[in-house]
């Protein structure tokens, strides 16, 4: 991963070239890169967490001044128990997936000796714009490498120090593998986003991950295909036949495991026949937390 300050066209061009090389690397080569990446991030844990602490201190001040929401602050903190380890294990989980490239998903006999196949292949170059969650860089890098795609990343300014530290570690790790370093690039400045959105001949897909305002802005300002999202429902429904104990465990975990997450439970729907048994049990369990 390179921490780049090139122009938008130079960034997109180098990523596009790297994507062609990455698409030819075997699954073993990509898996080795992910193993190397995991080892590097494990070794440099203290270095990355020190950088993250700087971000958290500034964000805490911003939250105290009313300039930043508490949910953003919680998502920013990599020192939260288990969070860094989850990031590391996620890399290995991606590595251990089946090779997504070269799989025949459909085969049709058109005529004698003439067979039409649909085969999975890398998309090419991705532009991914996301919020202030430092671990997302490692998540995206792992998924991009595994799927044979180059990725240009732009994260939230609140995580700048964390992003820089993680980018440096990833870049050093990739230099020991077949993966071209420009295949994963991190851009620091927000100003360059609009220029990147105009690189429709070099960037194949934009993935905005954040607020609805961000998604709308991206869709309104690019000719590149956009994989956007809508509001999540984040709802749970308890049927009248549901086991009360199991339902309570699922509800409490969905709400309290990571309340700041965008997919934390927001709405609970309960069948009227079990209203009096479920709600008191849920309330008691939540209060116990």
Entry keywords:
two-stranded antiparallel ribbon, 2 domains, alpha/beta, 9 strands, single chain, 48% helix, 289 residues, Aldehyde Dehydrogenase, Chain A, domain 1
Tell me what the structure shows.
The protein has 289 residues and is α/β, with parallel strands linked by helices. It has 2 domains: 219 residues, Aldehyde Dehydrogenase, Chain A, domain 1, CATH 3.40.605.10; 54 residues, no CATH class. The chain is built from 11 helices and 9 strands. The strands form 3 sheets. Strands 1-6-5-4-7 form a 5-stranded parallel beta sheet. A two-stranded antiparallel ribbon has the order 2-3. A two-stranded parallel sheet has the order 8-9. The longest helix is centred in the N-terminal third of the chain and has 20 residues. 33% of the residues are buried. The mean pLDDT is 92.
Blueprint of the fold:
Elements: E1 2-4, H1 8-22, H2 27-43, H3 45-64, H4 70-76, H5 83-95, E2 104-111, E3 114-119, E4 125-130, H6 135-147, E5 150-154, H7 160-174, E6 184-187, H8 193-196, E7 205-209, H9 212-220, E8 235-238, H10 244-256, E9 267-270, H11 275-288
Parallel strand pairs: 1-6, 4-5, 4-7, 5-6, 8-9
Antiparallel strand pairs: 2-3
Helix pairs in contact: 2-5, 2-7, 3-7, 5-6, 10-11
Q: Provide mean pLDDT, rounded.
A: 92
Radius of gyration: 22 Å
Q: Report the biggest beta sheet as strand number plus sense, adding barrel if it closes.
A: 5 strands, parallel
The CATH C-level name of the largest domain is Alpha Beta
User: What is the number of helices?
Assistant: 11
What structural category characterises the helix and strand content?
A: alpha/beta
Total tally of structural domains: 2
By CATH, the superfamily of the largest domain comes out as Aldehyde Dehydrogenase, Chain A, domain 1
Strand content: 15-25%
Poorly predicted tracts of residues: none
CATH T-level topology of the largest domain = Aldehyde Dehydrogenase, Chain A, domain 1
How many β-strand stretches?
9
Per the principal axes of the C-alpha atoms, what is the gross shape? globular
**H and E string:** EHHHHHEEEHEHEHEHEHEH
């Amino acid at each position: 991963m390179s921490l780049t300050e090139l122009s938008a066209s130079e960034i997109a061009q180098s990523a596009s070239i790297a994507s062609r090389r990455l698409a030819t690397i075997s699954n073993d080569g990509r898996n080795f890169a992910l193993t190397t990446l995991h080892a590097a991030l494990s070794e440099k844990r203290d270095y990355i967490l020190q950088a993250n602490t700087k971000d958290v201190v500034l964000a805490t001040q911003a939250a105290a001044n009313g300039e930043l929401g508490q949910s953003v602050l919680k998502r920013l903190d990599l020192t939260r128990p288990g969070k860094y380890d989850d990031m590391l294990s996620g890399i290995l989980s991606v590595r251990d997936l089946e090779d997504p490239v070269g799989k025949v998903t459909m085969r049709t006999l058109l005529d004698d000796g003439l067979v039409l196949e649909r085969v999975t292949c890398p998309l090419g170059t991705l532009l991914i714009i996301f919020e202030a969650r430092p671990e997302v860089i490692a998540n995206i890098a792992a998924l991009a490498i595994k799927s044979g795609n180059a990725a240009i990343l732009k994260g939230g300014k609140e995580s700048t120090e964390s992003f820089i530290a993680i980018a440096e570690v990833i870049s050093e790790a990739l230099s020991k593998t077949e993966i071209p370093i420009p295949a994963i690039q991190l851009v620091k400045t927000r100003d360059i986003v609009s220029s990147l959105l105009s690189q429709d001949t070099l960037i194949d897909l934009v993935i905005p991950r954040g607020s609805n305002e961000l998604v709308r802005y991206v869709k309104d300002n690019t000719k590149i295909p956009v994989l956007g999202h809508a509001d999540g429902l984040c709802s749970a429904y308890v049927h009248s036949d549901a086991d009360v104990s199991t339902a309570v465990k699922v509800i409490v975990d969905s709400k309290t495991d990571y309340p700041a997450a965008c997919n934390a439970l927001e709405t609970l729907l309960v069948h009227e026949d079990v209203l009096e048994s479920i709600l008191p049990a849920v309330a008691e369990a939540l209060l116990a937390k």
